[in-house]
Amino acid sequence: MTRPSILYLCTGNSCRSQMAEGYTRYLGGHRVRVASAGLEAHGKNPRAIATMAEDGVDISNQESTQVTDEMLSDANIVVTVCGHADESCPVLSPGTRRVHWPIDDPAKATGTEEEITGKFRAVRDEIRARVKALLMEETSK
Length: 141
Fold this sequence. Notes:
The chain has one domain (5-139): Response regulator (Rossmann fold), CATH 3.40.50.2300.
């Protein structure tokens, strides 16, 4: 079996795609190769790092990067995690599977600190569930 190579793609590679990459490394281990990138690189979101740390996943050493042709050609699965990335996704190689997860951007959350933190946690939990399902599907092939 070929080890799946997953690329998570979003607009800025600061939050959702970073979380997805972190969970894929944490849950998938050596069974999968993973990267994340953005159409642009906006830097890492400190709240995303803190929210993931609450669940025992350290994403602080991941880089916020802009997608490259090499990243796209290395991936056999490209997961877009926002509408903009889905609409603007570059042309993929034949045989590359494309998946779209329409996940709300917690960085746009407003309200009290507690409400914003709650939004980050809800998005984190949704991403964890989606990553688990993807890994189960891909590693059972």
